Amino acid sequence: MAVLTEEQTMLRDAAKAWTQEKSPVTAFRKLRDSGNADGFDRAVWREMAEMGWAGIVIPEEYGGTGLGTLTLGIVLEETGRTLTASPLLSTALIAASAIVLGGSDAQKKEWLPKIADGSVVAAFAVDEGPHHHPDRLAMTKALSGTKHFVADGGAADLIIVATRDGVFLVHGDAKGLTRQRLSSVDSRGFANLTFENVAAEPLSVSLDQVLDRARAGLAAEMLGTATQAFEITLDYLKTRTQFGQLIGTFQVLQHRAAKMYTELELTRSCVEAALTAIDTSANDVAQLASLAKAKASETLHLVSNEMVQMHGGIGMTDVHDAGLYLKRARVAEALYGGASFHRDRYATLMNY
Amino acid sequence: MSDLESFRNEAKGWIAANLPPSLKGGGARAITDEGDSSVWGGRRAKWTNPDSKLWLERMGAKGWTAPTWPKQYGGGGLTAAEARVLEQELAKAGAPPALLSFGIWMLGPVLLEYANEEQKLEHLPKIVRGEIRWCQGYSEPGAGSDLAGLRTQCVDKGDHYLINGSKIWTSYANYADWIFCLVRTDNTRKHEGISFILFDMNSPGVETRPIKLISGNSPFCETFFTDVKVPKGNLVGKLNGGWEIAKRLLQYERQNISAGGFGGAGGYDLPDAAKEYVGVENGKIADADLRTRIAAHKMEAQAFALTVRRLQEEAKSQKGPSPATSIVKYAAAKLNQDRTELLVEAMGSQALGWEGDGYTPAEIMAMRSMLRAKANSIEGGTSEINLNVVSKRVLGLLDHQ
């Protein structure tokens, strides 16, 4: 863990306590079983906003706290641990950053206070097919076409849209916008959004700037998910007995556990470096965001698989949480580019 | 100006005034197998460049070869933050390391922790000034990963100890002045029968024999002890209390091996080599599969570098390295092996030479570095032993019964 400021430590402890008490995995399971169409509980989101989490990257003059991306990443890590379903990433990080970076004064005044107080839910629409190819988008500023698999796209009051002509802001009730809610494997609120000459306002921010924030923030959430999945598994190794032994005394499992721990430590360094680079406007944000997302994708993939395998039969059942971690893992791995996309981007950025 | 900034100015000024111009730009030189290079110091040092000697004398007198050690033992007496500033300023000035030393990396830290005052005053200043070069007597032919199975006998003869036995993989024993050595002082108990002792390699009965490796180099030796007399005051810590010191020293060793990485492979960065030997298509390395694997490797290397830096920052407030250093050693070994294998692959048949005409020195070095790197997951604790350490001491998993 990076050396945190006092404020960050307090926020992390508060986030840890809140997610464990108010939003444990059982809460997510209940949400899933309730068939909630939004993919998150609006009362829970209000509670998160009341704690100030929705305004962490928003300047004080617009109702936020301006604590920065690393600080929001610390909260995302904690919500990732318990699979807390919320629009924290799409709204408080992605949309808020896009408007802070590229919004006009009027746009900032209109949207940022509402994001900070939790009254507006936002989504970020990028992909136009089953894969992440942000440099091959077909949609232009005329805003016609379909955006696929948009996180929180079903519930969003505000949509940040990526096009080949730049980044645009669209009102959720805009004419010509239709939504097809999807039932995704991770039970979150994804949707396909179809645009027909929808009125949009341009934001003066580059798509990469927004995307890299999305990637680094998602990587922080994934780090939390992977860490928790690992800790649950490690606990099982210390309690499950076979052959008259705790299975955690078997060296083949010990070494796999040690390798997972190594990967988690490496991932943490990449995630914290990417978030810090964003906050300091370093010139290697793109490189570090791709590194963090690739590493988080690989590590969560590994740990979610090992979680099922090391739990044995119980890990295959729906009553156990391993399946919930595995399902969320696969969605998060792919979102905003999987490991192979980011390896290629890294290679291109580095001129290999 | 903060204290740290005024220290930075002081360090910058001192370096400008004291770094011999002929050494500038030698800062990136990696730790190599050339164990006889002058910067290792010691009584047998061959000073090919007198400026290297001058630089060591100046840095040693300042205590900056061991910047954080206390001043009363010859160290620099700097805080961890000041030491980092010094490191940064030395790097900026293009200064080469004044001294490469097992005494500084491994022995010194445990002497500070476990030795008596007399031993500290005797040995530490000579380490700082590079006057005495140390080697490490740990592994034996029958005690590798199972280090505590060591059998070198150390018998109490009243006014001295008598040592008989042999060590193996003793790095640069043939160049060393003194040895820090694990010996058996009780044959009835395993871990609790080991002691940590220091002695002069010039003592009668000490013999060293270099071992030739698959890389063609000989960084390691076999070392034999026949009736070696050692003064009783040379035992460090408690009699039969050497295992704790031994493990502590291994943490420092693993931290140092890995923080420094395993050295470069001589001049070539992987992507550059791939472009030169494989070719370029549309501005990219022409072999798409190799390009992907090189990118994946470079990303691992960056993740590793970020982790080393993070662990160092976190360790600032703690005392000494944590067991988590074992993951660093494990990861560093794999990275270096991957890097050297990829370089050989990228160079194609030009990396398959052993010596002579037809190959550039960098091509020969690529193959030899790959061969040398096979030892990275063996020396200083095998990767398997390091995974055991992580399992047990970091993750709290128990021994199999």
Structure characterization notes:
- The complex is a heterodimer of chains A (352) and B (401).
- Chain A has 11 helices and 9 strands.
- With 352 residues, chain A is α+β, with helices and mostly antiparallel strands.
- In chain A, strand 3 and strand 4 (166-171) form a beta hairpin.
- In chain A, helix 5 (88-102) runs antiparallel to helix 7 (207-237), helix 7 (207-237) packs antiparallel against helix 10 and helix 9 (285-311) runs antiparallel to helix 10.
- The relative contact order of chain A is 0.11.
- Chain B has 401 residues and is an alpha+beta fold.
- Chain B folds into 3 domains: 20-128, Orthogonal Bundle (Butyryl-Coa Dehydrogenase, subunit A, domain 1), CATH 1.10.540; 134-242, Beta Barrel (Butyryl-CoA Dehydrogenase, subunit A, domain 2), CATH 2.40.110; 261-394, Butyryl-CoA Dehydrogenase, subunit A, domain 3 (Up-down Bundle).
- Helix content of chain B is 42%, strand content 14%.
- Chain B is globular, with a radius of gyration of 22 Å.
- Residues 27-33 of chain B have low confidence and may be disordered.
- Chains A and B meet through strand 9, helix 8, helix 9 and helix 11 of A and strand 10, helix 8, helix 9 and helix 11 of B.
